[in-house]
Predict the 3D structure of the following.
Amino acid sequence: MIFKIIKFKKLSSTQDKAKELAGKGAKEGLVVVSEVMAKGRGRLNRKWSANKGGLYFSFLLRPKKTNELPFLVFKSAIAVCDAVRKFGLNVSLKWPNDILFNNKKLCGILLEASIASKVDYAIIGIGVNVSNKLPKELSGIATSIKKELNNNISKDKLLREILKQFNKTMAFYPAKTISEWKKRNCVLGREVNVKTFKEEIRGVAAGVDSDCSLIVELRNGKRKKIRVGDVGLV
Ligand code: BTN
């Protein structure tokens, strides 16, 4: 895929800008980057703190089917993981879309799609804590590349490396995407706490299904398939 990068100093959210341009017919491969965001958002309508120093971007894809969407999240997570590892930090993946270092969040991925009778577009938003200051309330659960490496890296180089890696993962078949995701994950086999829209469950993350759902095994041996949820490592 050929990427076209457009850079902004400040946006409310790179997701909104990418959506606006997608609505105007922008092509797959458009990448919207912003130095800061006034209203960065995360999954499940959470706020995403986006101060100067972080890498915040959204890119536009035009997948054909809705069942490709979870795979795009996995492919993006693998791409970010491999790119960050190239800079010397041994990060790993938490289902469905977090990149962690020592159990602390270093990067989050957000997928938003416009679906009518078919998928019109999908926008993947990626926020990497590079050298941005993290809010105090996140200090126990989040970290940045600068904090961990004691060194600053170029956000531009990191972006280019992520896109390069993404081009590799885009070629993966579904089963390959899942097996590559599994190789880098830090969740499977561990005790987890999962919050879904309707319940909170505790069990062992037992596997990933062929549609990218998480399989959790409860104490009573029953298995639950989680399509959307928040996973906490216990
Ligand atoms: C999450 O972990 O909940 C996902 C966080 C996604 C943050 C990125 S930063 C670039 C893009 N623009 C946004 O407003 N959010 C995403």
About this structure: The CA atoms of residues 36 and 52 lie 5 Å apart.
